[in-house]
Structures are given as C-alpha cells and as structure tokens.
Design brief:
The structure is a single chain. The chain contains 20 helices and 31 strands. The chain has about 800 residues and is of the alpha+beta class. It has 3 domains: about 170 residues, 2-Layer Sandwich (Aldehyde Oxidoreductase, domain 4), CATH 3.30.365; about 200 residues, Aldehyde oxidase/xanthine dehydrogenase, a/b hammerhead (Aldehyde Oxidoreductase, domain 3, Alpha-Beta Complex); about 325 residues, Aldehyde oxidase/xanthine dehydrogenase, molybdopterin binding domain (Aldehyde Oxidoreductase, domain 4), CATH 3.30.365. A 7-stranded mixed β-sheet has the order 3-5-1-13-10-11-12, with helices on both faces. The longest helix is centred in the C-terminal third of the chain and has 28 residues. Keywords: Molybdenum, Oxidoreductase. One of its GO terms (molecular function) is iron ion binding.
C-alpha cells in the first residue's frame, strides 16, 4: 500500500486530484509574459544573414553598406565574436569514441548547412536590421553537400578537424544472436526510414540579452526549459562569473526539448550585448525556425526478429544509421537519441539474445537532437512493427503474439538484453486494459463486415517503455554540467500563505500546478494559498529544471520533502504556542489541529503572526524556522521506467492514399498520478505529436541540402479537425525509489502513437500486398506501396 492510498478524501489532500492550472485563465486571456513582450530601455534588435548554401567556403564578407544604413548600431562577423567566446564541442566523456567539430557563434571559414547564421546585424528596430541584412554581400564558394547519410558514411570528412563523418558508433551484443537465428522457426526482417521533423512550438526561440559592463553582469531573458544550464554556458564561454549571470525564463510557449540546446543565434546575441553594453532582442521568425531549430529523428534502421514455433521471440538484431546534421548539439549532444533507440528496442518482451549496431553520422543539414520522447518512437515502431509482421507470418492475432512474449508483471526486477534495469512495469495489465477499452473483438467484427463492402479499416496496437527521472548518470557522468538534482525553497509568509521557489520549470505542461498540489497536500493547507515561482536563476535554487519527464518524479519529490520539513518546523512552533507536543498536532485546512480529534486549536496565520511579530511571547532563545531549503537528487539506478500500450483505428482510401484516423486509445502507467487532468492533457498532446510524425510532419531536403518545405505553407502539422478522439486509461505502479512514487508521463503519448498508427495502416492493407515501413505515411507513399503509382 502506498502512502497516498485513500488520502484524496482527506481535507486539503490534492495528490491524485484533478485541479485546474492557476495560470490557465491568465494565458487564455492573452496576459502571458513572454520574452517577445519584453521591452527594455536602450534595447536594440538583432537579425541574421544566413547561408544560402548547405556547404561552402567563406571567401569574403562585405558589410560596409549595412553598417552605413541609418539606425544600424553594429555588424558582427565570426571573428568579432569568436575573440570573446570560447568554442564549444558537443561530446560526452562516457561516449568514448564520440567526436564533433568545435563551434563558435558565427562561422569563421566555412558554412555547414543552408540557413546557418553568418552575419549578425544589430539595429534600432528589427525592420532596420532586416533591411541592413539585405545589404550584406557574402561571397561563398559552394562545395558539394553531403545530404544523404549513407553517402556521408564513406565520404571525405566535411570538417577539417575530423578524419571522417562518424560522430559516434557503438555496438551492443548480449550473445547468442546468430545461434538463435540459425535455430529459429520463423524470422522477419524489415527496413525502416523515419523522416526528420521539427518542434513548431507555439512560441519561437527568443532571447533578450542585457549585459551591464559597469558590473560585468549579464541578464538573459530567455525562452528556455533550462535556465540553470544556460547560466553555466554563458558564464563559462564568455568568462563571466556565474554569480553575475542571471537567466530568466518567463512564460514559455512550448518547447518539447527544442529549447534545451545551445544555438548559434543566442550565443551571438549574448556576445553582441557584451560588445555593445546594451540589451539586444532576438526572436526567430517561423521561416528562420525551420532552418535553425533542431530537427528530430532521421533514422534508417534494419531490424530482424527470430521466433520459435510457438511464436515466442528468441532474438533481435538491429542496425541504426542516425543522421544528425553538421554538428553534434551542445551540451547534450546529438548521439543520445540513437543510443536510446538501440537500448529501448524490444523493451516489453521476454527474450535474452540481442545485438545492435549504431552509427551517428554528420551531414550538411540542420542539427538534430533531443525532442519529445527521445528515441522512444523509433525503438517502439521498429519493435512493434516487427512483432506485427511476425504475427502476420504466423497467423496470430496481434494481441495474442504479445501476450505470449511480454515480460510477466510478476517477474520484476528485470534487466533487459540491452542492459536497462526495470524496477517494476505492468505490460500484462496494460495490454489487457487496452483490449478491454478498445472493445477489440467488436472492432474486428466491424472491420470484417466493412471490408466486404470495400472499406479498408485497420487496427494497430503498440507497447512502449519510457525513460523518466534521469539521475546524474545521464549527463553528469559524461562531464556535462547539467544537474540531475532539484532544489526548493519553502517559506511561510506573515499572512499564513506559502511561497515555493523551485528549480523545475513551466512550459505549459502544468509544473507549477502539480508542485502547488504537492506542497498544499503535505502541509495541509488550501492550494490557493501556495504560490509557486520558477524559471529565475537569481530567485530559485539551482537544479535540473524540466526535461526527460523529470518534473513530477524529481521536482515533485523535492517539493514533497521540503514541505515535510517545513511542516515539522511549523508544528514545533505551534507546540510552543499551545504548550503541546508537536507529535500531538497536525495541520488541516489551514489550522493547527489536534491530530487525533481534528479539533482546531490555532490558525496557521496566527502562528505566522506570533512567530514574525511577537516572538517575545515564545520561550527564550526560540528561533522559529519558517523557511526551509531542500535539495533532492535521485539515487541508485539512473532511470525510473514507465510503460503503457496504445491502439489506433484508421480507415485507408486505397484510391487516394488518404488515411482517416478514427480513434486512438492509450493505457499508461506513470506511477503515482498527481493530477489526472494534467496527465491526460500531456498524453493527448503527446499522441498528437506522434500522429503528426506518423502522417504529416517531415522536413524535406533536395540533393543539394536545401530544405524545400521550410514554412507552414508547405510543412504539415496535425490540426484539430484531423485528430481523433483519444481515450485514456490509467494504471498506477509507483516507483519505490521515492516517497511520492511518481514517474513521468509527458513523452508517453508520443512514444507509441506512430507505431500503433503504422500497424493500423498495415492492418488495413492486409491482402493488398502493401507494407508501410516509412514515416510519415503520406498518401503518395501509401499509393506507391499499393503499386498504383
């Protein structure tokens, strides 16, 4: 029994309760405070001249006309900023053979992708800066572009600092793979292509860098998930003491991992502010975002399964070629996704022989890196599509083949063939729940009836495992200054309210809401009396912030432990006032009460009044501690794993190739649920992004490395009218690593949506000789698979 079972009915018990977000009304009314809204005295504006070529040598840059334009304050080229900014390199020490060229804000000799910023214009307005950018003449000697990652594998190195174009390579081999395939009764093999896509956040990247030379102090108002990471980056690379760097992340309009990374534009704007001693604002427009925001995915994978005569998986063999653009991103690198892909393969299934080969390759395109559900959709799609292929080969139902192969729920803890240690997962419960909420047998009967009338409906399912709650072994062990711990400062105000400053951050997912719930629950006070503050390195304690689904599992645990400390302090003071033992008292509904009877004794506000203003009435030498500081870092194994199952129902028009998504189902197990409403919002949002990748989103390049659909006129994102009803069911398997028991949920929807969708499309096309193994599954690709074009 967990510590919170049944507690939802107690006064001021909020863990497990659906409550609305306190900031929702303000944001919906257009009262958000974004970086874009910020106007500072003497503020200037930035615009960039970008490379028209994917690869080329910079011959000369003529900035004279641009500098002469009225309203232009400065024009910066690579040398101007490289002289004050230490270069950065996107590698991690525990990836022993990893390499990447060093990066500086603006290029010195070569351009490496189409859209790379080359010159920075600073002017009195953005319009003037853009006009000046048109006057800059950049002479670039175009070089052959390496757009195709297969060609890049064996081509001459793009960067003179490297011997080849391999950023990182690794192999996993648990043994017995060849023997298992030789002995197999059935084998299946498929090759997959996963297209590039990008975040398309509601708010683009934005920064206002404000350097004060009189104090050697930098304040960066930055639309980022990780203000503490950027405080460290700006401090180290520009030689400013960390205490003199303040990063403020106000309201953030979405990130999905895209705003985690160091970008050349932001580094250049900081450098320009240092040079000029004035605040400088840069907001990427949507077309800039397409050629500068990190892209995601871009994998080419071949996978094989071996099975015995009973349809049980005996071995898996995978080769993953991951393309990452011109550089490895910093400081988290671009190798993490591929590494997680090969380590999450086959995760739900009970087999022991596994082999994988990973090659992470440079190319002349925008960098790829971490994006919502890093690696999860790739590993899930390969695994689940191979399992469905095996089911078709063996004549088994998709549910039946999974039931035969799942890791039994009673068999944990377990170590996967890839080396991951699973504390406790619930695959069998989730699969059974999915079958029930889908009303699967009725769906199959309806499908058969419609097929007789030429209507092609398909049912797809997919199981997933998600990585959450990362420990220091995730980045810290690799030398990256990315914290795995979080900190919280809780204080009782003189009016009896509570302020919580915490290092986890808010980007619209409800972090502030769940932290407020946890604090109110543990203190026994009304949630409305808890104010949560995030996103400012000067006013909140240092911590990892929000990424990799760590907000609830690590940030929430930090808040819980801090609240328990503060409660103990408050009960100690109340005991002195009431001449009672603290253990005889409790806090309920903002009152100090007798723990056994619940009788109210004194209000929390009165305790605060006495402690702050009449401490003379307390026993001599009493020092009431009405503020606490607490830090928490996960211990033991590097991750807490979650799991779940998804189902998808589609209808395919064989004449046009169009797919209508009729319904989607999700069963997820994120451990202890703090706010069911927000979990459902996160899961639905994740599913939409997963279905976007499955059917719509792809960054398309030509052979010269030019992005050919770099605007929302050409790049498709899922819209409300195209999305189905998404039904969600929950299973709770709390982690025993924390008191709270929470894991992550933000990436669960994305993790398996595209896999379930691909299996659904292929199920619809059974008997038509078509199998889709490339996403997005566009109408053209479906028609090609059908052989009609």
């Amino acid at each position: 029994m967990n510590a919170f079972a049944g507690s939802i009915d107690k006064p001021n018990s909020y863990i497990g309760r659906s409550v609305s977000r306190p900031n929702a009304k303000r944001l919906l009314e257009g009262r958000g405070r974004y970086v874009t809204d910020l106007v500072l005295p003497r503020m200037l504006h930035a615009a960039f001249v970008r490379s028209p070529y994917a690869h080329g040598k910079i011959v000369s840059i003529d900035i004279d006309e641009a500098k002469a334009l009225s309203g232009v304050r400065a024009v910066f080229t690579g040398e101007d900023l490289a002289s004050i900014c230490a270069p950065w390199t996107g590698t991690l020490e525990h990836f022993s053979n990893m390499k990447s060229p060093p990066q500086v804000p603006l290029p010195l000799e070569k351009v490496m992708w189409s859209g790379q910023p080359v010159v920075l214009i600073v002017a009195d307005s953005r319009a003037i800066a853009e006009d000046a950018a048109e006057l800059v003449i950049v002479d670039i000697e175009e070089l052959p572009a390496l757009a195709d990652p297969v060609e890049a594998m064996s081509a001459a190195a793009m960067s003179q600092e490297l011997a080849d174009n391999i950023c990182f390579a690794t192999k996993l081999d648990s043994g017995g793979v060849e023997e298992a395939f030789d002995a197999a009764d059935t084998t299946v093999e498929q090759s997959f292509i996963f297209g590039r896509h990008t975040a398309v956040t509601l708010e683009p990247r934005a920064i206002v860098a404000d350097y004060d030379p009189s104090e050697n102090r930098l304040t960066a108002h930055h639309a980022t998930q990780t203000p503490y990471q950027f405080q460290d980056v700006y401090s180290r690379h520009y030689g400013i003491p960390e205490a003199n760097v303040r990063v403020i992340a106000p309201d953030i309009g979405g990130s999905f991992g895209m705003k985690l990374h160091v970008y050349h534009e932001e580094m250049a704007v900081v450098g320009a502010s240092i040079r000029l001693g004035r605040p400088i604002k840069y907001v990427a427009d949507r077309m800039e975002s397409f050629v500068s925001d990190i892209h995601a995915r871009d994998h080419r994978i071949t996978g094989r399964l071996a099975l015995d005569r009973d349809g049980r998986i005996t071995a898996m063999d995978v080769d993953d070629l991951t393309a990452i653009g011109a550089f490895s991103s910093y400081p988290r690198t671009s190798a993490v996704e591929g590494n997680q892909v090969i380590r999450l393969m086959g995760a739900p299934y009970d087999f022991s022989s596994y082999r994988a080969n990973l090659s992470v390759v440079f190319q002349n395109k925008v960098q790829t890196s971490q994006y919502r559900a890093v690696g999860h959709p790739i590993a899930c799609a390969v695994t689940e599509c191979l399992v469905d292929a095996a089911a078709r080969e063996l004549g088994l139902d998709p549910f039946e083949i999974r039931e035969r192969n799942l890791i039994p729920d009673r068999s944990y803890p377990r170590t996967s063939p890839t080396g991951y240690q699973f504390e406790k997962l619930s695959h069998q419960v989730c699969l059974a729940r999915l079958k029930s909420i889908m009303n699967y047998d009725a769906l199959r009967a309806e499908q058969a009836g419609l097929r007789q009338n030429g209507i092609l409906r398909g049912i797809g399912i997919a199981l997933f495992v998600e990585i959450t709650n990362p420990s220091p072994a995730f980045y810290g062990v690799g030398g990256a200054r990315i914290s795995a711990q979080d900190g919280a400062i809780l204080k009782l105000t003189p009016s009896g309210e509570v302020h919580c400053s915490i290092s986890v951050t808010e980007q619209g997912q409800g972090t502030e809401t769940i932290i407020g719930q946890i604090v109110a629950d543990q203190l026994g006070i009304d949630r409305e009396k808890v104010r949560v503050m995030t996103g400012d390195t000067d006013t909140t304690p240092h911590g990892g912030a929000t990424w990799a689904c760590r907000g609830a599992g690590i940030g929430g645990e930090t808040a819980l432990q801090a609240a328990r400390k503060l409660k103990a302090n408050l009960l100690a003071v109340a005991g002195l006032i009431l001449q009672a033992q603290p253990g005889e008292l409790d806090i309920r509904a903002d009152w100090i009460v007798e723990a056994v009877t619940g009788q109210q004794r004194v209000s929390l506000a009165e305790v605060a009044r006495i402690a702050f203003f009449r401490s003379d009435t307390l026993p001599p030498e009493t020092q009431a501690q009405l503020s606490v500081v607490h830090h928490y870092a996960p211990q033991g194994y590097p991750f807490a794993f979650t799991n779940g199952a998804q189902g998808c129902l589609v209808e395919v028009d064989a004449e046009t190739g169009f797919v209508k998504i009729l319904k989607h189902w999700v069963v997820e197990d994120c451990g202890r649920i703090i706010n069911p409403l927000l979990v459902d919002e996160q899961v639905r949002g994740g599913v939409v992004q997963g279905l976007g990748a499955a059917f719509f989103e792809e960054c398309l390049y030509n052979e010269e490395g030019q992005l050919t659909n770099g605007s929302l006129a050409d790049y498709l994102v899922p819209m409300a009218c195209e999305m189905p009803d998404i039904e969600i069911s929950h299973v709770e398997t709390p982690t025993r690593d924390t008191e709270l028991g929470a894991k992550g949920c933000g990436e669960a929807g994305t993790a398996a949506a595209s896999a379930a969708a691909m299996n659904a499309v292929n199920d619809a096309l059974v008997g038509h000789g078509a199998v889709l193994t490339q996403i997005p599954m566009t109408p053209t690709r479906i028609l090609r698979a059908l052989g009609t074009i």
